[in-house]
Amino acid sequence: MIRRVTARSCGLTLVLLAITAAGWAGRLSAPVQAEVRPTLPPPHLQSGGARSEVVLQQIAGILERIEGRLQRIEELAARWDQGTKPAARSVRP
């Protein structure tokens, strides 16, 4: 019985030593480098100024698209008006 306990203890000890050695070997062979990147807080945690800046940029983009569409509509209307002008009326004496 004493031999079995000793053999098990030696086996477990060898396994633990092997795992520990593998861990140390992994740490020594590959140094790890890390950097901390600053991240923006989630939108629901941003202050009023940070939120309004994003919203204003979105509004500016929408207004630019609207302006482009209005410009194209105005150009189309101008071409349509030029093509469908009524004929000049003759002046009766």
Q: Name the overall outline.
A: rod-shaped
Q: Calculate the mean pLDDT score and round it.
A: 76
Distance between the termini: 138 Å
Low-confidence stretches: none
Beta-strand portion reads: under 5%
Fraction of residues in helices?
55-70%
Number of helices: 2
- Largest sheet features: none
Oligomeric status: single chain
Specify the structural class: mainly alpha
| Element order: H for helix, E for strand | HH
Radius of gyration computed on alpha carbons? 40 Å
Q: What's the number of extended β-strand segments?
A: 0
Topology readout:
Blueprint: H1 2-29, H2 48-83
Brief summary:
By secondary structure, this protein is mostly helical.
Detailed description of the structure:
With 93 residues, this protein is mostly helical. It has two helices and no strands. The model has no long low-confidence stretch (mean pLDDT 76).
Features:
2 helices; 93 residues
